[in-house]
Design brief:
single chain, 175 residues, alpha+beta, four-stranded mixed sheet, elongated
Length: 175
Amino acid sequence: MRSRGFTAVELLVVIIIMAILLMLAVVNVRSTQISARDNDRSVDVESIALAFESYYNADHSGYTKTYPGTSDLADGQDALTYLKEHVHDNSLRAPGANSGDPISLVMATNNQPASGVTPAPTIKTYVYQPIANDGSLCSSYQTPCRKFFIYYKLESATTDCPAPTNLCTYTSKNQ
């Protein structure tokens, strides 16, 4: 009996099995990449929050301890630039700076909770919301900012950032 090679059915079965394995590998890699980017976002927010805490604990020449308010920023200035200038922390970087996509930290324009904060956080924009003692949005040194929230969005839902919005909130340590 002579062997003439593989039959068309055998080749088709092998190709289908390889396609299934390749598809499973791609899905696993994408899931891992999403998880890694979400982890980077969480670490970035913690770093930014630490810089705000350093600002709060710094000596402000007789002023009450406060977080920066919304009007403390120059027109159009990114909050990260402000922090770098006032905290003098050169390790502070824009979230996702290594990924090539510009991501920024912007100031909230209202004192609504995460789902209603303006501008809405995205996976490329974090929203900083300073709050005064009375619960209003804090604007400057005239009304000291006693706490802050940083809102950010993840690509996948977690227990801290539930679906369908995947919005997370980081709350200041000093309240």
